[in-house]
Amino acid sequence: MNPELDLSLQRVIRAPRAKIWQAWTDPGKFAQWYLPAPAVCRVDRLEVRPGGGLVTRMSEDGVTFVPHMDAVFLLAEELERIVFTNTIDSSWRPADAHPVPLTAEITLAEHPEGTDYRVLVRHGDPAARKRHEDMGFSDGWGAVTDQLARAVAEPAGPASR
């Protein structure tokens, strides 16, 4: 991690990695947690494999949906790591990514209470990192990660694997 360019967060999620992986790879499950509530997500493409598309739309009222994300997966290591970027769109064309061009890396690791879930978001320059931080990276990505944790939560105690 480069603190001048990157933002990160980490959570222990009380669920096995397989359940989190499924929440990342099943479009129906993904739509349930990917945007901070009360925003609603629709998944147009979720192809979690290198070169696969990640295309979503969002709605504030649940009726009118607007484009949200058009990105491509760079890496998908089952149960361990997912990397995607919005600097290339799902058609593999260079993208004018708004509001912030980024590459996000999600890592899943075993933890005694479930899964050690880490997010590392890389930016191309310090100004982009600052813009993302000022937009509320911690609150937004934190809320989404909390929603993911609630969606896959298991009862207290050691997670079954």
From TrEMBL:
Pfam families: AHSA1. Gene3D superfamilies: 3.30.530.20. Belongs to the AHA1 family. InterPro entries: ASHA1/2-like_C, START-like_dom_sf. It comes from the Bacteria. This is Uncharacterized protein YndB with AHSA1/START domain. Residues 14-152 form the Activator of Hsp90 ATPase homologue 1/2-like C-terminal domain.
